């Protein structure tokens, strides 16, 4: 157990000391969430809302072509908080497609960002006191047998 905790805290040692302090500048969210959200807003200007399916409460968004890429269609379901691009599900911050739909239907895109990016939630996470384990003699040894997963993942991507 101590190795697990040490592995988690190892990454925290490299954080600059200013990280928690920088959140005090009247920001609603953490720096990561702010950067992601603003980046999504800038990208959403280039998108177009094309269709709205009333019974499924889904909207289609088409991205513009830039540098040989684009013209992709993504399906956004605001009620379920999901987008077919997967970024909204992955990060908990509304992607550019979802932000475009929110803009089109006068919904605050900031209201659909997950609560764990809130500044108070961030501060509460690190407000507790951690006691490191002094020696391996005091740690619990789990009596679990590790078994490899028999399912082999095969990539469907070309190349």
From TrEMBL:
Q: Which PROSITE patterns match?
A: ZF_SWIM
| MF (Gene Ontology) | zinc ion binding
Spell out the SMART domains in the cross-references: ZnF_PMZ (SM00575)
Residue stretches in coiled coil = none
Which source organism does the UniProt entry give?
Sesamum angustifolium
Q: Which Pfam families match?
A: SWIM
**What is the name attached to this protein's record?**
SWIM-type domain-containing protein
Keywords for this protein:
Metal-binding, Zinc, Zinc-finger
Which residues are in the SWIM-type domain?
Answer: 74-106
Q: Which InterPro entries match?
A: Znf_PMZ, Znf_SWIM
């Amino acid at each position: 157990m101590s190795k697990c905790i040490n592995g988690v805290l190892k990454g925290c040692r490299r954080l600059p000391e200013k990280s928690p302090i920088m959140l005090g500048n009247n920001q609603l969210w953490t720096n990561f969430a702010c950067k992601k959200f603003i980046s999504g807003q800038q990208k959403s200007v280039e998108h177009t809302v094309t269709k709205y399916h009333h019974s499924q409460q889904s909207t289609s968004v088409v991205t513009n072509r830039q540098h040989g890429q684009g013209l992709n269609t993504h399906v956004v379901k605001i009620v379920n908080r999901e987008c077919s691009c997967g970024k909204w599900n992955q990060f908990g911050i509304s992607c550019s497609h979802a932000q475009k739909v929110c803009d089109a239907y006068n919904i605050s895109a900031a209201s659909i960002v997950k609560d764990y990016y809130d500044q108070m939630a961030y501060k509460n996470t690190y407000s507790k006191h951690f006691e490191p384990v002094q020696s391996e003699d005091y740690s619990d040894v789990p009596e679990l047998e590790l078994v490899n997963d028999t399912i082999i993942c095969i990539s469907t991507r070309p190349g």
